[in-house]
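Spend some time on this chain, tokens included, and walk me through the fold:

. . .
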Amino acid sequence: MIAVIDPASPAAQAKLQPGDVILAYEGKPIDRSRQLPRLVADTPPETPIKLTVWRDGKEQEVELKVTAANPNRPVPPPPEPEKPKPPPSIDALGLKLVKLTPDLRKQFSLPEAAKGVVISEVAQSSQAATQGLRPGDLLVAFGHDTVASLEELQQKIGAAKKSGHKNVLVRVEREGNTRFVALPLEVG
């Protein structure tokens, strides 16, 4: 599998991509990664060759020229590490709610057994702020029903809005203590 492409290389000009899997070199199957450097080393410079690669679930043929390695050329920089994607979230009830992840458990010192969705932000002038809710609190129930996921919470909020409820009762947990809080359902 290709990990990195040097932007100044024939591989880049041939539009090879990180993640492509090289299956064959000039029709010779590549079963082990150490086979490829030997085949390339045995090919004279400026020789056009065909690679068979696996990309997006199908085989493709790519043509490129073998070039002599320049010993003075600087090593290409490593690829930028992927930034972690923020966990999914919803904005509702004057709160920003996110899926409970191992990182959030650590950040807010939540026990392993904790369940629910995490409050990551509280709108300053909201009823939630007035009630003393804060980031790190767990929303564990909506009405009398426990909440295990953001999707479940969204469905419950949608159903409450459809039923014409103006306020909802949520159960919030902080440091092992639970309490019920009435929050207005925002329209929209």
Summary: The domain at 89-184 is CATH 2.30.42.10 (Pdz3 Domain). The two ends are 48 Å apart (CA to CA).
